[in-house]
Amino acid sequence: MAEPITLSLTVNGESRTLSVHPFARLLDLLREDLRLMGTKEGCGEGECGACSVLVNGQVVNSCLVPAVQVQGAEVVTVEGLAQGESLSSLQAAFLTYNGAQCGFCTPGMLVAATDLLRRCPTPDDGAIRDGLAGNLCRCTGYSKILDAVHAAAGEGEAAR
After folding, report:
1. What is the tens place of the pLDDT at every residue in 32-59?
2. Cβ atoms of residues 72 and 8 within 8 Å
3. Best label site of 55, 91, 118, 157, fewest CB within 10 Å?
């Protein structure tokens, strides 16, 4: 049996030191060790994007990232997108435009869209589709998600 390893990282702005199994995935660390349940496990194969988080500013599928690879990293989950008790304008737009139906894909969509708006503050439909291409949704048909991202872009989401 493998001995646990100690990892130090920053999650949603908070420094954390954890003892984890050496074969744990980032997704497991977030959900099981830190009890951050916003990040979802969909396919477990990196195909659906439900587990998307930011690691050092890059969108990754946390189901594919070994926890040992985030030593010293900065990780942002969907829980870290809010501004204190206030939703980000992107999160509010998802609510306003009904961009979330069952909600399972929503955390990954929000993380990917946040990254997109940081890179491209005023995306057109093509840029939004490209930015969210790694995230699948079976409920919304995507048009409401596009509307929400456009609305958030209009409110300066990239500046947050």
Report:
1. 999 999 999 999 999 999 999 999 999 9
2. yes
3. 118
Domains of the chain, start order: 5-80 (3.10.20.30), 89-159 (1.10.150.120)
Looking up tokens 């930011």 gives 54
Q: Hey, which bits of 22-113 come out as E strands?
A: 52-55, 58-61, 74-76
What residues form DSSP beta bridges with 15? 10
Confidence of residue 159 (pLDDT cuts 50, 70, 90): very low
* Side-chain-side CA neighbours of residue 68 (13 Å): 6
Residue 75 tokens, joined: 């990780």
What is the rounded distance in angstroms from the CA atom of residue 116 to the CA atom of residue 14? 24
